[in-house]
TrEMBL record:
Gene3D superfamilies: Winged helix-like DNA-binding domain superfamily/Winged helix DNA-binding domain. The keyword DNA-binding applies. It is found in: Nucleus. The keyword Repeat does not apply. One of its GO terms (cellular component) is nucleus. It comes from the Eukaryota. InterPro entries: HSF_DNA-bd, WH-like_DNA-bd_sf, WH_DNA-bd_sf. This is HSF-type DNA-binding domain-containing protein. GO terms for molecular function: DNA-binding transcription factor activity; RNA polymerase II cis-regulatory region sequence-specific DNA binding. Belongs to the HSF family. Residues 19-115 form the HSF-type DNA-binding domain. The lineage of its organism: Eukaryota, Viridiplantae, Streptophyta, Embryophyta, Tracheophyta. Keywords: DNA-binding, Nucleus, Stress response.
């Protein structure tokens, strides 16, 4: 007698179908609903269908986010996108892309996963300082020097900008004073013309 097929055995389960992360599915559904519902002025797929654009973050937060997520915070939405490897691709608008997030290709969503958290450098640095590893200590000292130098440069820039601000305020004050004096002289001349008439 032949052995029964693995899926037919008593107590065996069918293989689990991999599902996309809820955040990714909801974002995809949100875009499809926006397109179907005529809300493309708020959010839409980009022209190539390989990304999406949030045209109005305020309206998106108010109208779209609460329908699909438990919040209306645009910054949280963007942070979530980042954890799944989405990239902001335009400097002057909120456009995001991911290689596997494509219009009409919902089946690819299962391939999008959270980014792996990189291990912290702190334990390695702590170990280096305890173990007497010269390289670790030297690296920390160089980093410390770099940070101090950058801090000093920033302090100098702040000082420079404060000086520029004071000069600008002096110029504005001088301009306003001379303008007011000019108007006063014009008023006096106007008054003299009226009296001579």
């Amino acid at each position: 007698m032949a052995a029964p097929h693995a899926a037919c055995r008593v107590g065996s389960r069918p293989p689990k179908k991999k599902c996309p992360a809820p955040f990714i599915s909801k974002t995809f559904d949100l875009l499809d609903a926006a397109e179907a519902g005529g809300a493309t002025g708020v959010v839409s797929w980009n022209s190539g269908g390989n990304g999406f654009v949030v045209w109005s973050p305020a309206e998106f937060s108010k109208l779209m986010l609460p329908k699909y997520f438990k919040h209306n915070n645009f910054s949280s939405f963007v942070r979530q996108l980042n954890t799944y490897g989405f990239k902001k691709t335009a400097s002057k608008r909120w456009e995001f892309k991911h290689d596997k997030f494509l219009k009409g290709f919902k089946h690819l969503l299962v391939e999008i996963s959270r980014k792996k958290v990189e291990p912290s450098m702190f334990p390695q640095l702590l170990e280096a300082s305890r173990g007497g590893h010269r390289d670790g200590i030297t690296s920390l000292m160089k980093e410390n020097q770099t940070l101090r130098r950058e801090r000093m440069e920033l302090k100098l820039q702040i000082s420079h900008f404060k000086t520029m601000e004071m000069r600008l305020l002096e110029c504005i004050s001088h301009y306003m004073t001379t303008r007011c004096q000019g108007q006063t002289q014009e008023n006096i001349l106007e008054g003299a013309k009226i009296e001579n008439f």
